[in-house]
Sequence to fold (876 residues):
Amino acid sequence: MSVPSTPPRPAAANSVWPRLEPLLPQVTKPIQYVGGELGAVVKDWDTATVRWALMYPDAYEVGLPNQGVQILYEVLNELPDVLAERTYAVWPDLESLMRTHGVPQFTVDAHRAVRDFDVFGISFSTELGYTNLLTAIDLAGIPMLAADRTDADPVIVAGGHAAFNPEPIADFVDAAVLGDGEEAVLEITTIVREWKSEGSPGGRDELLLRLARTESVYVPRFYDVDYLPDGRIQRVVPNRADVPFRVHKRTTMDLDAWPYPKKPLVPLAETVHERYAVEIFRGCTRGCRFCQAGMITRPVRERSITTVGQMVQQGLEFSGFHEVGLLSLSSADHSEIGDMCSGLAEQYAGTNVSLSLPSTRVDAFNIDLAQELSRNGRRTGLTFAPEGGSERIRKVINKMVSEEDLIRTVVTAYTNGWRQVKLYFMCGLPTETDDDVLQIARMAHEVIKAGRAATGSKDIRCTVSIGGFVPKPHTPFQWAKMERPEVIDGRLRMLKQEINSDRSLGRAIGFRYHDGEPSLIEGLLSRGDRRVGAVIRRVWENGGRFDGWSEHFSYQRWVDAAAETLPAFGVDLDWYTTRERDELEVLPWDHLDSGLDKDWLWKDWQDSTSEYEQDDCRWTPCFDCGVCPSMDTEIQIGPTGQKLLPLTPLNGAGLKVPTHTHP
Amino acid sequence: MRRAGVPIAFSQGFSPHPKISYASAAPTGVASEAEYLEIGLREPVDPEQLRAALDAALSPGLDIMDAVVASGGGLADRIEASHWRIELPEVEPAVLDRAVAAFTAAEEVQVERMTKQGRRTFDARAAVISIDVVASPQTPSGAAAVPCAILELVVRQVTPSVRPDDVLSGLRVVADLEPPVSPRVIRLAQGTLTAQGAIVDPLDADRDGAAIV
Fold:
């Protein structure tokens, strides 16, 4: 590596920089709007045939580390005739200045106006980013409704997990892509390139039709939704010939063939994660019934130990990061995780590189791995996720962990020198009673008692962290009713009292939780249909921004907007959230195919209420969730039997002096 | 440092930190052509090679101009004053002339600024060694059609520090000078101060030793 990949910023002809720069001294953290990160790419506008603006709809500090956007940015920019730039949600202080001074939504790479791009792709990890989508569309000068857009506007494509039910934003986006993005963006690029080279025949409508015909790009305008008199959906049907009845998710099968990010973005501004993150596998078949990620990313596809080793080496060398995260939905489940951890710990011994594993599996093996990774001295935190406080509720959610497992595991952590562990639970789960939640306190008390007995020390702690349950599409809980926020908040208060009912034990237990209100709104958005778009728009018009941030979120604003807009459709906020659906109800996302068989999901939902536990198909026979046959995929796991390649440690390499002079 | 392969030294203790310290960094939103930092190394390296490696590893716009082996004494002790240029677009040079004259004539000019300790009031006048309106301005960066007054300042390093925006606040206090658009500020130099009021590169004292590795 001799010359930085980023050329000096060219004064792009279509740059808004001269108008943006004078505003920056007046806003907080102006460096987030400047660009110029290591790994950023600025290409010539005129020689590019297909131009993508990619957005993560949250603040730069949250959006920049996002893996999905970084991967697509790199995959697209590797094509010589394709240009991809990034844009993030601007904070309200800059938004207001941009409106006053007529500065449009811009990319951070070359500060180009988003409206000038061919495709505007937005990745939604959470539905709470929807209001930020509306801000970006509006600031970009693009008509808010997809129906009002012309050939002068980019095609707005939503992706990410929330895109598995894009109906609430169906009026605002032109298309949605379900599943893995790597190959999907290339296919869309090919279609746009061909359509443009033919002279854009048939305009925007023809382009959208070509995208829809792939059967893996959902174009909401080509589908009509009919409703029953009681407000439920009657049917969703295509309104155009040769548009598929169902749109299928994309699955990238061979992760070794897609070793991205190779050149991770290294921000100049401070961000939430500053590390080289490598996905060690995608998908999860643990079968936790609340977990949308685990359901929609099946089957499990492992990245091999050798590819992971190479990615870590190259990623660190390129970026200079000193932290590595081995990410996945359940990292300890990789078939070669033991060799991977010990191999990496060995290679980076004495280099100040720290390795971390998001640890949620409740067993001693997890602690062995954490021990291995902390050989370098720095001890990462241990988090265990029993998710439910009582044995009964854990069966309901299919989290197969017994109380003995948990106590034994946490005690092992304490005896191995950890002074603090974090325990993660959920509140508001289907069938949950007050007692299920109070059991969390008892469990935490037992953990501390056992820990004190085993270590002979009072210097041990645990933190109980509670998340609110939100039923998500394409999961067995998609039919479930939500609890009202008052009930959730009441249970959390009781739990807090119960934890502190023993003062000695209570002092050793930290308690963190989110209140129930944001979860209810997330529930509205995650299982909403097209009518919910009116609520989103009203909230945005009333100033709703950054709904994922507690300091910006206003529950009342959502409640009011729902009360103003939904009665016209004969429904209300409760109808979407606290109502249980029955088997035959047409769900807003039924025409979007995640591969999961709806009959299997229903059976698993019934099994949950009878507390039947479903095993993992990696180690037990297939239980017919439907993904592999319908998507023509299969589980891809090791072990490969390979070892990490011996690498030159970063440290001994010495100064990296460029071979040719840098201007 | 890691990208450049610099054998940086780490502090001792439970969470070791790399030994890097910045001397009198320019405030946010201010351009600079003269920033200095000190780094501690585990082993000797050739300063020119170090400079080239760091320069290549940094983002465009962040250029490493020079590196020398420290012969002793802290860098911070050698930063006695800073030379700034302030471009004031849409301000008539004659207006600025009058404001500067009023500022220079004043014994002291009390200004306010929010600091980490809260709002503070201090004198912005005494630390200013020279303040001149540049007579024949070169074309400033950006639009050339509008008038643009240019100010050159040499300010002594004091506590609390007097920054270019404090001097601008001072001009507002003494002459109601309100720039219509944000001023552009550039640090041109910082270092030790001679009796004549000139700034000397703080690395000069080490330069003879640079060849000895």
